[in-house]
Amino acid sequence: MKLISYHIENYGKLQEQDGTFKNGVSCFYEENGHGKTTLASFIKAMFYGLDSYTGASKSQKDTSLALPERKHFYPFKGGLYGGNITFEKEGKTYRIERFFDEKSEAKDKLTVYCNNNETNEFGTDVGKAVFGVDKESFCKTVFITADEVNISSTHSINEKLNRAVETSEGERDYEQTHKVLSEAKKKIKSARSGLYFDTNKRIGEIKTEIHGLEKIKNALKDKYKERQKLCEKQEELSKMRDEAQGRATLLAQWAHYDEEQKRVAEMTATQKSLLSEYPNGIPSEDERKILSDCLQKESELKGILSSSSLSAEKSYRLQSLQDAFPQGTPSEGLLAEQGDNLQKITALETELNGLKNTQKSGERERLENKFKHNPLDDGKLHEMQALLEKYKTKKRECDEMSNALLQGTMAQEAPKKKNNFGVILLAIAAVICALGVGLIFVQKIVGIALVCVGGVGVVAGIILALAGGKSSSAPVQKVQVNETAVKMKSDLRGLEDALKAKLIPYGYYSGNLEVDFNNLKNDWNTYTQGLVEDSTRKTQLDEKTNAKQVLEEKVRAFLQNYGVAADNLQAGMNDLRDEINAYKFLCQEQRNAESRKTQAEDELDGLRKNKKEILAKYGLSEANGSLEGIDQMAKDSREIVRLSDEIEKGKANANTIRTKHNLTVRPEGDLPDIALLSAQLNGVNKELSVLDQNIADDENNVEKLGDLENRQKEEVERLESYEARNNILEKALQSLERAEQNLKDKYVKPIQDKFAFYAEAIGQVLNERVEMDKDYRIQFEKNGQKYEERHLSAGERSICALCLRLALIDNMYETEQPFIVMDDPFVYLDDAHMEKAAELVKTLAKDRQILYFCCNESRAIQ
Amino acid sequence: MKFIHCADIHLGSKMEAKLPKSKADERKAEVRVTFGRMVDYAKKEGVKAILLSGDVFDSDSPFKTDKAFFYGAVEGSPEIDFLYLRGNHDGSESYTKEPSNLKLFSEEWTEYAYENVRISGIELSPSNATSLYSTLRLEKDKINIVMLHGQESSSVGAENICIHKLTNKNIDYLALGHIHSHSEKRLDDRGRYAYSGCLEGRGFDETGEKGFVVLDVEDGVKSTFVPFASRTIHQQKVDLSNAQNEFDAVEEVKKQINFSSEDLYRIELVGELTFDNGGLAETIQKTFEGSCYFIHVKDKTLKKINVADYEGDTSLKGEFIRTVMADSTYTEEEKLQVIDVGLKAISGREVE
């Protein structure tokens, strides 16, 4: 691909300018300010356009000196901003016409012609379509300036190089991936740590443990053998001991038999000895019973004989009773008569007590007190009766007069209330006076004082009553009271007072004189009736007391006849009855004793005869007939019988022992020491017990073998899984490394080769070994250490940048190489390297078009 | 007349490695208990003799506990004869008691008679491995049961039973021990041979029904296998390739396995998963722990990688996959594993 010509309407300082490009190197050597960079920019702008800008653009902010290209190259003199450029690509001639707005790319005008015909073949992004890379990548490859020394690739370049080695978001790059896999591998298996190491260590430990248990297990076989031997020894000793014990048992059985025989012999001898004591035999049990009964009866009869008369005490008693009753005991009739008398006495005592204990009522006591100290008689009572009659008559007359007066003169006037204060005072004073009179007999001074106070009160009361009667009866309209009425009233009061003076000392002062008088009269009657009753009771008391005394004398006299003197007659009668009973009982007892004595003497004679007969029958002495003798005979008899039984039993036992144990031949020889054999057997048992415990412990331990082996198996499986995992990780790492190398071989190596070629062409500017990664980052090695390219000098870096760009271009465009724009890229080179660079450019220009701009003659390339 | 043919009790044997200790101990006890139950069964069914075709004990030096249990069972069942032919595990039993109802065998043919039934046996050893076939003499008119312990084989050997050499020997039933699964095959025109299998499975290499064989002898021998183990051990692969997520995976397991609360299960998860497997084995283990006596889940699934998806990928990821897939030294499984781990690392995920 090559540029053919251009036309600039206005672009920066350039205007109405046309030009052509030749093949090979087109060197634009001009001093600064002639528009070299403007032309370079125009060429780029024709393909890629100019970026829009608004106000202070980003680049403006970043670098205050740099202006946006669209602004920077805006025509100084105005006019149409842009032009066209004609180029050849793949045999076709294209012309791009672009006219730019001052600021906005959207307002630009773009027209592309192919062979003078407008075409839309490249779309709007003409540069990308023509060069296959974006504007940035274009600047990093075919558009070479001295400023752009950044040595790296771009996504677009990579795309153009047909590779996309950049990592996506979240993915790890080669180094990171390698690190992750290496760490995972290290975690599993490293020299002194990691899962593999730990597991291996555990397996070793388990193996050691297993080894130990295997040893125990193997040792167990010997212990089993030892146990077998001990068991055999145990069995042998056990057998010997059992045999010895068998013999010992047999001997013991023989000894038992012999002992039984010996016992039988001894008992036979004893029996024989006993029988020799009784040549005519031993009296039978019945006979011994007769002898025994005889002895017992003798004893009983002797007792009866000795107790046939009354005791001394009883005899004395009987004698004294006979003295008390010389004529015999009194008859039951007499005794019954005295009993009746006693009952009558008791009844009289009850009646007398009743009369004595008759209680006076409270009312009687009150009346006695009343009338005892203030006596009353019928005369006084008649006097008071007469006064009451007068008073009643007078009062009736007064009432009639008052009514007549009131009806005649004060028919219209309502009756007035009478002032009763004086009357009340009069009544109270009368009571005090009466109390005083009553108290005079008890407390003379107090009584007199009260009578005086009462007297004063009575006078004052009378005055007030009279005054009250006047004042209360004084109406608004005065009434004339005649003298008769006044006198009648005065008389009435006089009668009233006289009657009250008689009643009040007896305590009757209710205000109603008639009632008070009737009460007094009734009380007096009650009092006089009580006095009559008391007199009657006294008479009865005297009569009954006399009757009782007569009866008592009768009973006492009866008792004295039998020597019984008693204050309490009933007790005396009881004593007499007891004496009579005792006398009768003792008389009967005396008669009974005499009868028993006679009967006992007869029985005793009979028994003694029988006893003699029995003793004579067996030739026994009288001593044998004694109680001890009879007991001895009984004992001997029982012993002889017992011995007979025992002898029979002993013989049977001996036979049983012999039969049961089959005692035919007595064992001969010495009896082994059973204790020793038992001790030996115990020793073996203990040894066996210890060994069994030992075996049990070992077996318990050995039982763990299974678990350990399982654990070992598990650990080995784990180890194998780690090994497998490690293997996989190792293979993953190897594969990753190979993949990385493949990428390098495929995409980087050609670039690196070309880079080396161009570097060589320019000269050995880089003394160190240069490497390139997949992102075309250059590193160089110095003194065994790797450095990034930024540690190189400016000249070295510009050479590296140029070489890389050329290398990239060579690889990006394999079929048709594009033109290259070089805007004074070698400003940092010294003369020697500049010379070589010029040679390189010339060489390059053989198969591509190069537009070379420079401002210094030393860097001009012809 | 009834007999029981059993073998490989392995009293005192260790249990499956994955079992926790408490359950391992329980299972060890269950081995004894099941033997005891079998003896009870024999008593109840009026079995004349129990034929123990080897490996009653797991070790030639059995523990006292196991011996005490075994001899206790023998002595406690005087009405039953125990015909004890030792196997390769209990070869030199050092603690032997000899109760009257315990009938032993040796390295020479020994015969016990029960009416018209003859039970013969020989304990295999290098010295009789070849000769035992020719020295076996059985009467034609008797019912002949032969006991042996060893591996069924076509050749002779100290631990082999050369089946074809026992044909046409008038054997009615060949009661074998050594193989822990029940099987019965025809021996010749007259007889059959059978392994009773063990009474209880001890690990995931002893799966399936376990028990003993009841021999009902009248005119001939009628054998019936009686499943008798306390628990059955299962091992099953579950392909989760169709599962879209963990939930699907659990459902798939549920669909494929009918869990029994008494049994032991080992489940091997296989297949290529389309989803990320973050502890799937643990999830399934936890989900079904309550549904059975014991479960162990082994995850052998692989992440499904569609290599074609990365063909145009020019990134490190694509290059990595292409590099792995192109490596002929890797197995296909390794390739998937390497890619899985590599992709995790590149994708910024944790790599364990």
Can you put this structure into words, describing what you see?
The complex is a heterodimer of chains A (862) and B (352). Chain A is α+β, with helices and mostly antiparallel strands and 862 residues long. Among the domains of chain A are: 2-166 and 775-859, Rossmann fold; 362-536. Chain A has helices at 36-48, 58-62, 69-72, 126-131, 135-140, 155-160, 174-188, 195-276, 285-306, 312-324, 332-356, 362-373, 378-409, 421-440, 444-472, 483-503, 513-560, 569-617, 627-660, 674-762, 794-812, 831-844, and strands spanning 2-11, 14-20, 25-29, 82-89, 92-99, 109-114, 117-119, 143-145, 769-772, 778-782, 785-788, 820-823, 850-854. In chain A, the strands form 3 sheets. Chain A has a 6-stranded antiparallel β-sheet with strand order 2-1-4-5-6-7, with helices on one face. Chain A has a 4-stranded parallel β-sheet with strand order 3-13-12-8, with helices on both faces. In chain A, a hairpin with a 5-residue loop joins β9 (769-772) and β10. Chain A is flat, with a radius of gyration of 87 Å. Residues 57-64, 413-417 and 471-478 of chain A have low confidence and may be disordered. With 352 residues, chain B is an alpha/beta fold. Chain B folds into 2 domains: 2-227, Purple Acid Phosphatase, chain A, domain 2 (4-Layer Sandwich); 233-346, no CATH class. In chain B, 25% of the residues lie in helices and 27% in strands. Chain B has helices at 21-45, 64-75, 132-135, 246-256, 280-288, 316-326, 332-346, and strands spanning 2-6, 47-53, 81-85, 102-104, 110-114, 117-121, 143-149, 151-153, 160-162, 173-177, 183-186, 192-195, 211-217, 221-227, 233-239, 264-270, 272-273, 294-299, 302-303. Chain B has a 6-stranded mixed β-sheet with strand order 4-3-2-1-13-14, covered by helices on one side. In chain B, strands 5-6-7-10-12-11 form a 6-stranded mixed β-sheet, with no helix packed on it. In chain B, strands 15-16-18 form a 3-stranded parallel β-sheet, with helices on one face. The longest helix of chain B has 25 residues, at 21-45. Chain B is elongated and about 85 Å long. The model of chain B has no long low-confidence stretch (mean pLDDT 92). Chains A and B meet through α7, α8 and α20 of A and α6 and α7 of B.
